[in-house]
Write a structure and sequence with these properties.
alpha+beta; 51% helix; single chain; two-stranded antiparallel sheet; four-stranded mixed β-sheet; 22% strand
Length: 160
C-alpha cells in the first residue's frame, strides 16, 4: 500500500553548531508538524517500488544539503543532494527577520509584531517556493511539507 509521507526526520547534530531557545522551539514545532501531516514522494525510490513511508536524515555535506531517504525499517533508499548557494540569501533574510520577530514579541506592540510576522511569512513562503523548484524532478511534495523542510534547513545553518 502506497504511503508517500515522512514518519521520522533527524538533523545531523554535528552540523548544528549553535542553538538558542527560540530556534530549538522552531525546530521542535517544524518536526512535530511535519510528522503529523506531510506529503513526500521521492521519485526514484517510488519508481523502484519503495512507496513509503520514509525516514529522512538532513545534513550539510560540502556545502550541499543532503537528504538521506530511508524506508520504514531504516534501510537506505537514496540520497538527494541540493546545492545551497541559491539558499544563502533567503536563509540570511529569514534569520534576520526571525531575530526581529523574537525581539518584537518581547517588547513591541501587537501591530508591530503582526507587521514583522507578515514579512517573516513572506520570506518563508518565497524560500519554500525556491525549495520546491529545487526538488522538482526529485521529490513530489506539498507546500506545507516544503515549508517545514525549509525551516529545518535553516536550523542546519545556524552559526553563533
Amino acid at each position: 500500500m502506497a504511503d508517500a509521507r515522512i514518519i521520522d526526520i533527524t538533523l545531523d547534530e554535528a552540523t548544528i553548531v549553535w542553538r538558542n531557545p527560540d530556534i530549538e522551539q522552531e525546530r521542535r514545532v517544524a518536526i512535530f508538524d511535519l510528522i503529523e501531516e506531510n506529503s513526500f514522494k521521492p521519485l526514484r525510490s517510488w519508481e523502484a517500488g519503495h512507496q513509503g513511508p520514509y525516514r529522512l536524515a538532513l545534513s550539510v555535506v560540502d556545502g550541499r544539503l543532503s537528504i538521506a531517504v530511508k524506508d520504514e525499517d531504516d534501510r537506505p533508499l537514496e540520497t538527494l543532494l541540493l546545492g545551497l548557494a541559491r539558499f544563502r540569501r533567503p536563509i540570511r533574510e529569514y534569520f534576520a527577520i526571525c531575530d526581529s520577530y523574537y525581539q518584537a514579541i518581547r517588547k513591541a506592540t501587537a501591530g508591530e509584531i503582526e507587521t514583522i510576522d507578515m514579512a517573516r511569512r513572506g520570506i518563508h513562503n518565497r524560500s519554500t517556493e525556491l525549495l520546491m523548484e529545487r526538488l522538482e524532478g526529485k521529490v513530489e511534495t506539498d507546500f506545507a511539507t516544503a515549508r517545514r523542510l525549509f525551516t529545518l534547513i535553516c536550523v542546519l545553518h545556524i552559526r553563533g
